[in-house]
Amino acid sequence: MAGESVIPEVEMNAGADQAAATVRVTVVQAASVFYDTPATLDKAEKLIAEAAGYGSQLVLFPEVFIGGYPHGCTFGLVVGNRTAKGKEDFRKYHASAIDVPGPEVSRLAALAGKYKVFLVIGVVERAGYALYNTALTFDPLGKYLGKHRKLMPTALERVFLGCGDGSTIPVYDTPIGKIGALICWENRMPLMRTAMYAKGIEIYCAPTVDCMTTWQASMTHIALEGGCFVLSAIPFTRRKDYPPPPEYTFGGLEEEPSPESVVCSGGSVIISPSGTVLAGPNFEGEALLTADLVGHTEFSLEIAWYGSQTLERSFEPSLISMWWATTHDLRC
């Protein structure tokens, strides 16, 4: 009807009984506009508006959607040397990142309020000269709730992204459920998952750029292990989504990919606590995947058997152990 909002105003009374609630969610599978953060924000708004038009109450974007994932970029690095072009590549990538808080965060908050959605979105966070792989969360009233920094960048990400320190692993208690996010391969860290389970996570967001079919097994396992809904947003990108050569080149390849070559093939998915795939995986192109999450009562294994208080007290040294356990792993 004319004049009505796209979806009803969300009443912010966290902790209300949601046992029988149905929550509509959308996972975004799309490419960033590389080196152009204003254009990426414009694209994000169009996608949020479209998802809100479906009645979605939560919208999840891929890992580092704002700022982009630098597939194929070497930043001119070899041990003991960096090329002039590599330094310029990093300068442009750094310029595409965003400050948290900052004007881009304010705009994202305004978009969440305008379209009345919970918004979880991956960004490249800039803190001085350092960059972080960060997930931001916003509520339907246009409020920035907080951030999670990826604890351990994967493989060569470590040459341009800093490490999180475990101080930002929030789970937000909201009217649609307890929402949290872990980024890409930190979803393979058992203690990170356990921290989320101990906080009672119900809608588990897993933004990533891992488009391998094995990722689907990890997402199904987490849904079953945690007794939670799992949403994973993965970009779908082609070579033409990056600047053309010689401005941007793909290292480690015998020849430059054609403009239509697929760089990241998607695979976004939504999975229920029983392991049922509710939407996806989609490997065909840019898409919005939407599903209805029906409230459930978990009557099975208690994962966080230590209890949240014990886990909170012991988590810091556990994170240190986890950090050391992952530093040797240079797989992509």
| SSE class | alpha/beta
Strand content: 25-35%
Radius of gyration: 19 Å
Fraction of residues in helix: 25-40%
Largest sheet: 7 strands, mixed
Tell me the number of strands: 17
Shape: globular
Write down the overall mean pLDDT. Answer: 85
The sequence of SSEs as H and E is EHEEEHEHEEEEEHEHEEEEEEH
> What's the number of helices?
6
End-to-end Cα distance: 49 Å
GO molecular function, one term: hydro-lyase activity
Protein name: CN hydrolase domain-containing protein
Organism: Urochloa decumbens
Family: Belongs to the carbon-nitrogen hydrolase superfamily. Nitrilase family.
Relevant terms:
332 residues, alpha/beta, seven-stranded mixed sheet
Structural features, described:
The chain is α/β, with parallel strands linked by helices and about 325 residues long. The chain contains 6 helices and 17 strands. The chain has helices at about 35-55, 85-95, 105-115, 190-200, 215-225, 310-325, and strands at about 20-30, 60, 75-80, 80, 100, 120-125, 130-140, 145-150, 170-175, 175-180, 205, 230, 235-240, 260-265, 270, 275-280, 285-295. The strands form 4 sheets. Strands 1, 2, 5, 6, 7, 8 and 17 form a 7-stranded mixed sheet that branches. Strands 9-10-11-12-15-16 form a 6-stranded mixed sheet, covered by helices on one side. β5 (about 100), α3 (about 105-115) and β6 form a beta-alpha-beta unit. α1 packs parallel to α3. The longest helix has 20 residues, at about 310-325. Belongs to the carbon-nitrogen hydrolase superfamily. Nitrilase family. GO terms for molecular function: cyanoalanine nitrilase activity; hydro-lyase activity. Pfam families: CN_hydrolase.
